[in-house]
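Changelog-adjacent note: as of this version, every example in the card shows the full chain rather than a window. The one below runs 298 residues end to end.
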Amino acid sequence: MPEFGVGVLLPAIVQAVEWTTLPHEFRRPGFSEHSINQKRGKPLDSFLEGPIYVSSLDLLFVTDIPCGRIFSIDSNANWTLVTEYDGEPNGLVWNHITKKIGIADFKQGILEDDPISKELKTIVARFQGERLNGPNDLVISADGVIYFTDQGMTGLQDPTSRVFRLYPDGRLQLLISNGPSPNRLVLSRDEKALFVAMTRDNAVWYVPLLSDGSYGIGGPDGMAQDADGNILVAHSTLGLFMKIKSPRGAHTTNLTWGGPSMNVLYIVESETAAILRVDWHCQGWLMKLDKEENFWTK
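Full-length structure tokens:
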């Protein structure tokens, strides 16, 4: 078993358990722009994404892309429809400054939703006069700077997707313009680098947040395979990782930390509309507001 953390031994494969699924009354079988354009015409009753846990509300929020919906789930696994609109919401982030939910919407751009008043407004829909390709995910820094991926429908055949930095004053800066399908984002703990999941490239890009926008320090290097067919990757920046196995299948798309102690890993199994969970051996990490405290303690 590989060593993970200081003095902690964990198995190479961790089994997730199913926690809850989208209730029947919220399922809407049929076709949508999302299912036609991105799921090759396959009918869907939902497609969950973008989980975030808001500690001040003790709620887990998820999006339903094809139906333009955002749900909240309480600690007893009760689902509530928060908002429904003409959009395709994907990634979510809790803005600790505005106390609102930021939304990366493939159809509408970057939006902001007030979970109390339900007011929904557009923050960014264009860059240099042109509409965005199709935002996928976003993350926020301690000082309120938002980073988001503008994924669109690009891939290795057209590696022109983008990553942006949005400042609180509204300034929009282009960080990456040559991404083959940039998806999920994570800031490093010191907020001096950005990790970008490049889906069609089957890679994670490490992006130092330098003043000139340059990047490219280290990535996956050596590989090996075990008897079960697992591929082990030695990453020159990130080290080795373990595999978390889903009881549902292979369609896990996103994950977030939550729970009162922030040591529960919630994982979205999109096609079955299930939420999985893993009780982790330590707290997860969201962001750093000062030298001692993480975001969820505020």
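Structural remarks: The chain has one domain: 21-279.
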